[in-house]
C-alpha cells in the first residue's frame, strides 16, 4: 500500500497524465501526495552574456514553477487529497538526481511520473529524466505516457 506518492511535474501532457494516475492512487489508498517541480538554474548561466539578466531569468523560472505547483495542488485538493508541494533547484541539468534525492528525503513509497517514451536518436540526444530516476532509485516508479493525439 502506498502512503506517500511523489509526482514530479512540469507543463507537459505526460506530466498531466501522471497527475491523473497519481490522483487515482492517492484517492484509492488515501495517500499523501507531494508535487515537485525542478528548475535548472544553470540553463541561462552558460555565459556572461551582457544581453541577458541571468538572475532575473532564474527568478522567473522559480516564480513559474511555484505558480504551476500551486495550480496543480489546488486541483488535487478539490478531491480532498492531502497535498504538499516543493520547488527543487538543480544546477546543470541533473534533474533525475534531484527527484531521487527528494523521494528519499520525503520517504516516498511511490514515484509517479510522465515519460515521453522517445526512442532511437531522440532518446540518445535528449536522454530521459524518467530513465535516470528508474535507474537510481530504490522506490517503485510508475511511468505514465500521455495518450497520442488523434489526427
From TrEMBL:
Span of domain UspA: 1-145
> Do you know which InterPro entries this protein is assigned to?
Rossmann-like_a/b/a_fold, Universal_stress_UspA, UspA
Domain of life per record:
Bacteria
Which keywords does this chain's UniProt record carry? Cytoplasm
GO CC, one annotated term: cytoplasm
Cytoplasm is among the record's keywords: yes
Cellular compartment(s): Cytoplasm
Q: Which family does it belong to?
A: Belongs to the universal stress protein A family.
Its protein name is Universal stress protein
Amino acid at each position: 500500500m502506498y502512503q506517500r506518492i511523489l509526482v514530479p511535474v512540469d507543463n507537459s501532457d505526460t506530466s498531466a497524465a501522471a497527475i491523473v494516475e497519481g490522483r487515482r492512487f492517492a484517492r484509492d489508498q488515501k495517500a499523501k501526495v507531494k508535487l515537485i517541480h525542478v528548475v535548472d538554474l544553470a540553463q541561462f548561466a552558460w555565459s556572461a552574456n551582457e544581453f541577458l539578466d541571468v538572475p532575473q531569468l532564474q527568478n522567473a523560472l522559480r516564480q513559474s514553477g511555484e505558480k504551476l505547483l500551486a495550480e496543480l495542488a489546488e486541483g488535487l485538493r478539490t478531491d480532498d487529497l492531502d497535498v504538499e508541494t516543493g520547488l527543487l533547484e538543480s544546477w546543470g541539468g541533473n534533474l533525475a538526481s534531484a527527484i531521487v534525492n527528494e523521494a528519499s528525503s520525503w520517504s516516498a513509497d511511490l514515484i509517479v511520473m510522465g515519460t515521453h517514451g522517445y526512442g532511437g536518436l531522440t532518446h540518445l540526444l535528449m536522454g530521459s529524466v524518467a530513465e535516470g530516476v528508474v535507474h537510481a532509485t530504490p522506490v517503485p516508479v510508475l511511468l505514465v505516457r500521455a495518450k497520442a493525439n488523434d489526427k
